[in-house]
């Protein structure tokens, strides 16, 4: 039986689609066939949109978000509170928080987490850009919205140490300097979660982060 059922152009399309998250070889074939069957409605508009994305999309020099403008739409939104900065690992985390309409704040994308085993150190992340933004004195609170993983928490501790060192140095120069408040996301039992299905780490964090019932 032949390994290929279509020409090289279609096979290349399938291989590229198979690299996307959540798509395997079979799913990629189904998607490719659907696009081909709907050439005018889907394939051509998708091709045009991707060509435009290649030309227009860029990384925001301020926060690390991806947009067709630099600074990005979020950074140029005058309605946002510039004193509140949410630090996230990846652009996908930023978009998730925006979908939930959690806060009308500014953002900063680190571009990953510290991982010595993978050779990822502080210089590989956008931590320097974060310290440069906090050094301007406009930010009053930083929310470390990193994942509850070993790498995420290690990164959060490192950033906290850097911010505290920065604040200590600033207080020597200016005795009236007010240090930035540093907070993190609450971790524990999710809404709708049943205790019997949760892991021990989640239960432990939920118990430690307990609060008065209201």
From TrEMBL:
A zinc finger (C4-type) spans 60-75. Pfam families: RecR_C, RecR_HhH, RecR_ZnF, Toprim_4. InterPro entries: DNA_Rcmb_RecR, Rcmb_RecR, Rcmb_RecR_Znf, TOPRIM_dom, TOPRIM_RecR. It comes from the Bacteria. GO terms for molecular function: DNA binding; zinc ion binding. Residues 83-178 form the Toprim domain. Keywords: DNA damage, DNA recombination, DNA repair, Metal-binding, Zinc, Zinc-finger. One of its GO terms (biological process) is DNA repair. PROSITE patterns: RECR (PS01300), TOPRIM (PS50880). PANTHER family: RECOMBINATION PROTEIN RECR (PTHR30446:SF0). May play a role in DNA repair. It seems to be involved in an RecBC-independent recombinational process of DNA repair. It may act with RecF and RecO. Belongs to the RecR family. This is Recombination protein RecR. The gene is recR.
């Amino acid at each position: 039986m032949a390994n290929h059922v279509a020409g090289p152009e279609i096979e290349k399309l399938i291989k590229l689609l198979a690299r996307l998250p959540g798509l395997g070889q079979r799913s990629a074939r189904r998607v490719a066939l659907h696009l081909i069957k709907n050439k005018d409605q889907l394939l051509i508009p998708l091709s045009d949109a991707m060509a435009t994305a290649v030309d227009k999309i860029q990384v925001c020099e301020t926060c690390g978000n991806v947009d067709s403008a630099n600074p990005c739409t979020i950074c140029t939104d005058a309605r946002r509170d510039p004193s509140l900065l949410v630090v996230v690992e990846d652009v996908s985390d930023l978009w998730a928080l925006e979908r939930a309409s959690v806060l009308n704040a500014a953002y900063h994308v680190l571009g990953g987490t510290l991982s010595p085993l993978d050779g990822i150190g502080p210089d590989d992340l956008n931590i320097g850009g974060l310290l440069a933004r906090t050094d301007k004195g406009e930010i009053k609170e930083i929310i470390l919205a990193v994942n509850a993983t070993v790498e995420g928490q290690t990164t959060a501790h490192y950033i906290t140490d850097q911010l505290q060192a920065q604040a200590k140095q600033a207080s020597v120069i200016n005795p009236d300097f007010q240090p930035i408040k540093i907070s993190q996301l609450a971790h524990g039992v999710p809404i709708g979660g049943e205790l019997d299905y949760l892991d021990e780490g989640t239960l432990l964090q939920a118990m430690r982060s307990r609060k008065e019932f209201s």
